[in-house]
């Protein structure tokens, strides 16, 4: 049975941006992650071993967010690639990565990128 396991509203203080000041001072980011997989075994067994451990996924997202990059596009792609590589049970990942309060000289709540990628197994 195809399902989507979502981890929404992950907040991280990180150092991503094209301006040197952004990589020094940092700012807040929000990550929403949607992972498509078959959860039928877990639904029947009630066993964590038969599904995706989202606590582990969160830890890996946190690790990727800690690596400074210039572009949020690059960070988002690293996160998606890591989830697909580390969890063969995941068939597709959709991500929305938002930079909160970007330094654009005006009041802008956020900028973000959203995309999805399927596993190529």
Give the beta-strand count: 4
Number of helices: 4
Rg from Cα: 16 Å
Task: Give the integer mean of the pLDDT values.
Answer: 95
Sheet with the most strands? 4 strands, antiparallel
Corresponding CATH architecture: 2-Layer Sandwich
- Say which CATH homologous superfamily is assigned: GTP cyclohydrolase I, C-terminal domain/NADPH-dependent 7-cyano-7-deazaguanine reductase, N-terminal domain
Q: What is the strand content? A: 35-45%
Unreliable segments (pLDDT under 50, ≥5 consecutive)? none
Features:
121 residues; alpha+beta; GTP Cyclohydrolase I, domain 2; 4-stranded antiparallel sheet; 4 strands
Topology:
Elements lengths: L1 E13 L5 H6 L1 E12 L1 H6 L8 H12 L6 H15 L3 E11 L9 E9 L3
Antiparallel strand pairs: 1-2, 2-3, 3-4
Helix pairs in contact: 3-4
Overview of the molecule:
- The structure is a single chain.
- The chain has 121 residues and is an alpha+beta fold.
- It has one domain (2-118): GTP cyclohydrolase I, C-terminal domain/NADPH-dependent 7-cyano-7-deazaguanine reductase, N-terminal domain (GTP Cyclohydrolase I, domain 2, 2-Layer Sandwich).
- Helices cover 32% and strands 37% of the residues.
- The protein has a four-stranded antiparallel sheet with strand order 1-2-3-4.
- Helix 3 packs antiparallel against helix 4.
- The radius of gyration is 16 Å and the shape is elongated.
- The two termini are 19 Å apart.
- The model has no long low-confidence stretch (mean pLDDT 95).
């Amino acid at each position: 049975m195809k399902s989507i396991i979502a981890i929404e509203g992950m907040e991280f203080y990180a150092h991503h941006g094209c301006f040197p000041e952004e990589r020094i001072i940092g700012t807040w980011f929000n990550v929403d992650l949607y992972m498509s997989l078959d959860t039928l075994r877990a639904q029947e067994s009630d066993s964590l071993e038969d599904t995706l451990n989202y606590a582990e996924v969160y830890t890996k997202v946190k690790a990727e967010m800690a690596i400074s990059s210039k572009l949020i596009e690059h960070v988002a792609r690293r996160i998606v690639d890591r989830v697909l590589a580390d969890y063969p049970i995941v068939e597709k990942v959709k991500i929305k990565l938002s930079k909160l309060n970007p330094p654009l000289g005006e009041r802008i709540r956020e900028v973000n990128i959203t995309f999805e990628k399927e596993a190529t197994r």
